[in-house]
Design goal:
This protein is mostly helical. Helix content is 55%, strand content 10%. It has a domain of 108 residues: Winged helix-like DNA-binding domain superfamily/Winged helix DNA-binding domain (Arc Repressor Mutant, subunit A), CATH 1.10.10.10.
């Protein structure tokens, strides 16, 4: 547009570049979140599916039912059920009845699911997180905690475990 002036978002102050980087990162991630683009031994999977595997592996001792896991991950229960169904069909997880309940199911990662996750973790660490960690490692622990808190508290949460 001829003669248009550029609006500067001054209300963000010195945080504008951080917000821009965060928005770009989130948009790129959102764009590929559900696409089954990654592959392990002929099994294709998505970031949504790997996120569920990761949560299950990291929280095995919690013995949570599917509704509780969906809530903690911030995923609609129906979407979580679809993801788990896909993981079951791929032979990566199993649904196990909760003793004493006719309705509740636990989801357990089997050996193939563990192997897939280990392969994913090695690759994503090298390609994606090592470069990010090099920058984060330059921060002292208090500064890293401030970055973490800024992200969680902007979502209305005090910490990552709050539901």
């Amino acid at each position: 547009m001829k003669g248009a002036t550029c609006v500067k978002l001054e209300w963000m102050g010195e945080n504008r570049e951080v917000v821009e980087a965060l928005i770009r990162y989130c948009n790129i991630y959102a764009g590929v979140y559900r696409i089954e683009r990654m592959c392990f031994r002929g099994i294709t999977y998505s970031y949504a599916q790997i996120q569920v595997l990761e949560y299950l592996l990291e929280n095995e001792e919690r013995n949570e039912n599917m509704s509780s896991i969906a809530q903690r991950l911030g995923i609609k229960r129906s979407n979580f059920t679809k993801i788990v169904t896909r993981l079951c069909k791929k032979g990566l997880v199993e649904k196990v009845r909760v003793p004493g309940s006719r309705r509740d199911l636990n989801v357990v990662v089997n050996e193939l699911g563990r192997e897939l996750y280990e392969d994913y973790a090695k690759g994503v660490l090298k390609r994606h997180f090592e470069p990010m960690f090099r920058y984060l490692d330059q921060l002292d622990p208090e500064s890293r905690a401030l970055v973490r808190d800024a992200l969680f508290r902007s979502m209305g949460k005090r910490d990552r475990n709050e539901e």
